[in-house]
Amino acid sequence: MSTVRVLLSVAVNHNWSLFQMDVKNAFLHGDLEEEVYMKLPPGHPQESEVNKVCRLHKAIYRLKQSPRAWYSKLSSVLEAAGFKRSHDDSSLFVRSGSNGKLIVLIYVDDLIITGDNIEEIATLKSSLHQQFAIKDLGTLKYFLGIEMATSAKGLFLNQRKYVLDLLEEAHMLDCKAALTPFVSKLQLDDSSELLSNPSVYQRMVGKLIYLTITRPDIAYSVSLISQFMHSPTLLHWEIVKRILRYLKGSIGRGLLLKNHGSNHIMAYTDADWAGNALDRKSTTGFCMFVGGNLVTWKSKKQTVIARSSAEAEYRAMAATACELIWLKRLLADLGYIDNEPMSLFCDNQAAMHIASNPVFHERTKHIEVDCHYIRAQVQSKVINPIYTRSHDQLADLFTKALDSTHLQRLLSKLGSINPLDPA
Predict the structure, then answer these.
(1) Side-chain half-sphere CA neighbours of 229 within 13 A
(2) Which pLDDT does position 360 carry in this prediction?
(3) H or E, element range at 298
(4) What phi and psi, each to the nearest 5 degrees, are found at residue 39?
(5) pLDDT tens profile 328-361
(6) Which fold has domain 261-388?
(7) What's the pTM?
(8) Contacts 24+ apart (CB under 8 A), 199-208
(9) Which fold has domain 2-34+52-134?
(10) Helical H runs in 19-117?
C-alpha cells in the first residue's frame, strides 16, 4: 500500500490522470508449468470411473499455483509491450520512451494505470482488452476499499464506508464519540481477566490494521493492541472499543494529496524510550513524505531494550533510513532521480551526533552493527539529518498517546483531514 500512495502522490504532483481496470476471472488466465491433475468434477458423464482424472492446462481457483501463474501471465504481457518491472516492488511496471511515461500498478486482478500521455493509456487499454476479459472502470474512484475523490484541491483518500461497516459489525453506530483513540495516561498491565472468546478481538483488530491504510491517527493505538492477539484481556478489548468510539467521531477523515510540484523525499523519526511498562522496550515511529504528501508511516515496538534515549532514537533513525533508501529506489524506478540529500528530521541531538560522527566508540559499542547503517548514509550524503524541536516532531503521533489538541495539530500537518469538520 505504500507503493500505491507513492504512485498517487507522483501522479498528483504531475497532474496525471488515474484509471482503473479489473480483470474478470483473473486466475483462469494463468498457464500452468507443472503437471496438475484433479478429480472429475460433479456431473461429468464419466464420474463413476474412479480411475480417471483431468489434467489441467490452465489454472483454476483454489489451486495454490493460480496466483503465481496469473502474475506470470500478466507480467509477460506487459513486458512484451515494453514495460520494465520495478526491482523494489514487483507489482509496479514502468515504460518510458519518446511517447511519454506509462505506469501500471497491479494488485491481484485490479490495475491502476497512469502516465503523461492519454493516447498511450488508451492504446494500452485496447491491447489488454485483446489479451484478457477485462473491465474498464474509468477514472480511479474506489480501490481495495479506499474511496478516492479528485477535486481542485487534490486527491482525497478515505475509508468512510469501511468505517461504517466496522461500527455496524461492532454494534457501535450509536455510541458516544471520543476525541482521541487512546487514553494518554492509561498504563497497560497483564492483571486483567482474559477474554473468553479472543477470535472476536482478533477479527476486529485485523480490520483496524487494514484501516490504517488511510488513517495514520490510529496507527499507534492499533500497533499497541495488535501485540496482544494471542491472549487479549478485557482491558485490551476496552481499548479496541475506545478506538471505535474515536472513529465514530471522525468517520470521514482521510488523507489529502496535493500538487506541490516536487518529488523531494523527507521523513520525521522519533522514539518513545522505555515507554512500554511491561517490558520497557521503546517504540519507533516515523512518517515519510514524497512531493510534500504523506505516503508511508510506521509505529513499531523495538526488538531490544535500549540503554538510553539516544540509543532508542538512533535505532529509530536506522529503521527510517532503510525506508528512505527504499523510497529513493522506488522513485528512481519511476524515472525520478533526486540528487539532493533526503531530509531526516529528528528531535534528539545526541542521536544525530552519533549518526554523523564515528568517534563515539564508548557510547555506541554496545549497539549492533546494523544500526550504524544510518551513519554510512549520512557520510555518503544520501541522507541529511536535520534537528527539529520536539513541539514540531510529526512522528510523535506514532510513538505515544496524545491529547486531543496536540493530536489535531499534528494531523493537520500530516495532511489528514475530515471534510465534515466545521470550517
Answers:
(1) 12
(2) 58
(3) strand 293-301
(4) -65, 155
(5) 999 999 988 888 899 999 998 888 888 877 655 4
(6) Nucleotidyltransferase; domain 5 (3.30.420)
(7) 0.88
(8) 201/229, 201/232, 201/236, 201/237, 201/240, 202/229, 202/232, 204/166, 204/169, 204/170, 204/240, 205/229, 205/240, 207/166, 207/169, 208/166, 208/240, 208/243
(9) Alpha-Beta Plaits (3.30.70)
(10) 66-80
